[in-house]
């Protein structure tokens, strides 16, 4: 902690966070603090671990293996679209969805305590408080990016199609980052005032796992007559659904979301970000009082 405080004091103007410049500029001026926070969190996670980086891969790969055994082998995959129905295609489908999902789920969990766990720094440093939930999103984002080489290896051996659809990957990553930043700002501020949010998010995370096209393509639900239309509308309105579908579309061109569906994902992502930013700013005085 002293290293972060000292580095900020020597590298940033004293009035960076309190100047008349916009909040965004203040955050940009504090980017070195952000880098130190992200570097510290990654170091703490991997330094004392025997397997280190491998842990970022073992959990999602283990989950993919379990779900492949249950849904790919026991229940078979004949109902899946061509290209995904083959065993190799389905395991790639699972991994391509579960890896970004780990980014989602860890941010949902860790952002609820991103302010409370940094109370001492927040009350002693003149830095925009948005830096702390932003650091959580960036740390987990770096962990996701470190898994991409493994995903590429699976794609090489599992029938993934290397086409121009690869360009969907940066779009999916950017949308996911913006969405998660909005969520982190929202949850981190609300949790300080209402501690029950941490427990609520554990349930929400489990529900979202099965309400997101990780084990099945979204069109299987949207084209089914077993679900009412209102449910399908709500399902499509969830930005996480569209973002995960973009991650899948990188390797499976037949799963590219239609234009209107993609547009609704972008709009939904921006709305969540705006809500998170607005809530954080409104609750900031109450948050500082609680901390």
From TrEMBL:
Keyword check for Transport: yes
Membrane topology: Multi-pass membrane protein
GO molecular function: ABC-type transporter activity
A GO cellular-component term linked to this record: ATP-binding cassette (ABC) transporter complex
Subcellular location: Cell inner membrane; Cell membrane
InterPro entries assigned: ABC2_TM, ABC2_TM_bact-type, ABC_2_transport
PROSITE patterns, alphabetized: ABC_TM2
Highest taxon listed in the record's lineage: Bacteria
Gene Ontology terms describing biological process: lipopolysaccharide transport; response to antibiotic
Record field: transmembrane: 50-70, 90-110, 131-156, 168-194, 203-222, 261-280
ABC transmembrane type-2 domain: residues covered: 51-283
Keywords attached to this entry: Antibiotic resistance, Cell inner membrane, Cell membrane, Membrane, Transmembrane, Transmembrane helix, Transport
Keyword Transmembrane helix assigned: yes
Alphabetized Pfam families for the sequence: ABC2_membrane
Family listed: Belongs to the ABC-2 integral membrane protein family.
Designated name of the protein: Transport permease protein
Organism: Allonocardiopsis opalescens
Lineage per the UniProt record: Bacteria, Bacillati, Actinomycetota, Actinomycetes, Streptosporangiales
